[in-house]
Please model this.
Amino acid sequence: MMSSAESQAEIISLSEARDARSGARPRCAARTATGQRCRNYATEEGLCRVHNVQGAQDRVVAEAPPAAGSDAPPSDAPPSGSGVPSTGPDATSGPSDPSPASPGAKGAPDDPDTSTNEDQEPIGSAGSSTAEKDAEAPGPGGAATAADAAVGSAAADAVADLAQRAATRLAAEAQRRGWQPPVDAFGALGEVDAAALTDGLTRATGFLRRRLTGDYDIDAFGFDDDLTTNLLMPLVRPLHRYYWRVSSRGEHHLPAEGGALVVANHAGTLPADAIITRLDIFEHTGRHARELGADLVFRTPVIGELARKTGATLASGDDADRLLAAGEMVAVWPEGYKGLGKSWRDRYKLQRFGRGGFVSTALRAQAPIVPTAIVGSEEIWPLVYDLRIVAKALGLPYFPIVAQMFAVPVFGPLALLPLPSKWIIEYGEPIDTTPYGPDAADDPMVVFDLADQVRERIQDMLHRNLLGRRSIFL
Amino acid sequence: MTRRVLITGVAGQLAGRVARALEERDDVVEIVGIDVRDPQVDLHRTQFVRADVRNPLVGRILEVSRIDTVLHLSTSSTPGAAGGRARMKEINVIGAMQLLAACQQAPDLRRFVLKSSTAVYGSEHTDPASFREDAAARTPPKHGFGKDASEVEGYVRAFGRRRKDVDVTILRFANLLGPRVDGAFQSLFTLPVVPTILGFDPRLQFCHEEDAVAVLAEAATGGHPGIFNVAGEGVLYLSQCVRLAGRVPAPVPLPFAAGVASALRRARRADITSDQLRFLQYGRVVDTDRLRDVFGYTPRYSTREVFEDFLRRRRLRQVAPSEEVTRWEQELASFLRRKGQERFLAREEGR
Model:
């Protein structure tokens, strides 16, 4: 088996690890030009038919590829490669092409022999397969004549250069798209740093101890920083990162300190956008945005307490004034229930912003208003119909029939999960309230004017992002 | 300048200690204490008069002793101790009315201090996060001690309007917790489990009895007219209090809460009235900026310190004391560390 040093740098496939563990048929120990393990089954001597025929004992990697690559001097083509004979281009190909395979003395590509190798290449390396074809040319029997070596090396230069360019392109594409190489989950666990693991566990047990002994601090509004940052936010993070794949724009518009009022559009039947926006603001600025919620939230048994513990408070003028005066960032969704209960037809059309109370609050505190547009929140629970009679009977602001409910007979209650739309949150340029002065909070003209301005900005940003997005889910 | 003070409800712990505090001061030349029961605190130069506050004798005392400061401390918040809800209402409201009627005629009266409670703010889900003193008028409580207290305050304010030469100070105390003072809230922690309301976690604030005594003494001798909230700094959740006490919470669903409360009352285990249930649902936090800035007193004990002091002094047995939990945590952490290292080494060997 491989040494531990090599195993740390190596990425082995799940199938290989499985085979190794279960003692199933061994696989070929050779490597292809891009450094991937050859996944053919091995016949004898640990090599598959292809590599065996090619006399690839020389190419079997006993040492780690990078080590081998660095060992070999540039223009050295040892006749009998014990390890890795590599020519100049190979040595310069760097980490993206740690190919120990020598182009060999015979530069001519040996198609019949190498054609099978193409199947073994990973899907993305189509570009390098031609290079690999050439690179796998038999050569290293080593008994090549000098002339052959010269020709071979020239061709090998070109081929390896091609291989390198292709591999670099592939790596760049992988980086851009965030592809991960196949990782053996079970092997990776063993390789995780013991210190990191125990650090995580120590933090978790510390949190548990603080919870059990009541050793945490609450602010006057009931905000529990310890609980929010260490338990609730990590629970929501997978939704933010993988399910709704939120991408943010304009996060530099969020002020790093001082009071600020974030105003956003509200949608989605249930206020998931409030939770996700809160997490987004925290991820970008490290600040806890204090949300203003409707009183229905605080009347509900468990949700009310959770909301309070994450820093939300009642949407009354008093609390908002006090928070802004203390220099906190406050997030408000002026559309309110009208926004949440919007039907699918009216999606992304901003509803009325009420009396503009949020503007008065910002003016009184002289805090900047950051208009924020959230795209993607309309599609999580598309509201098809609102049963107003039932809503009135239950005392709710709306009683939604969402599109997923029609799938419940087929998929059961799982169908009621929110749809995984792609979210884009754009933070607009902050509107400065200092030119108006704090007394303008009582001037209805100024208040309405500013409220309209904010509404227009948000609608504008919504349209821009809607036009720019590829589709609802991608 | 000399002061002559009348203290009602002097039999209680708090009022007795206020009397003692005033006895220490040189400018207080005469202290008269009134109550129906004997004082629990040893009083030295306070003259104790056994009389009900509704007795017209009070008017005579005010006149004869030339009382210029009245401290009304006899409002009771525990119906069990008072002898029932109706009797508590009588003591609180009727007693206050009678006292004020007597004070109306007192020629030398210059200062009136009322010990009120933050219960006048009530507890609702629509409440602001913390109450300022001017917020009491919004939704006055309709039942229980909160209603009594707000009625009494109303009478006192009306009295202040009628007698403009009298400085009226109203002090709204948060839950008083202390080694000796027995408030309504404390009975919760004498039970083996702490009853809470399922799904709700109220925010609580406490005031230490020493701070209460100091504020009352200061109000009696200094000139601070107006309304002031008195509470320690900081806020605790009820769940946090339960954990600090090392006790187990017993969440009761809201529809059954009233039934459980009345059962506890009948069993004389805890004194929880229906208005206090609202308090256990939503809690209440008050703003003490005015106390600090205008009155000029900064409470020495924060809410957490008050509660911990209460736990320590009452020696409440803890089910899972914090030292043990810390020890468990350390053992668990070292166990995990060992296991993690063993596993890592095993993988290394296996290669």
About this structure: The longest helix of chain B spans residues 322-350. The radius of gyration of chain B is 24 Å.
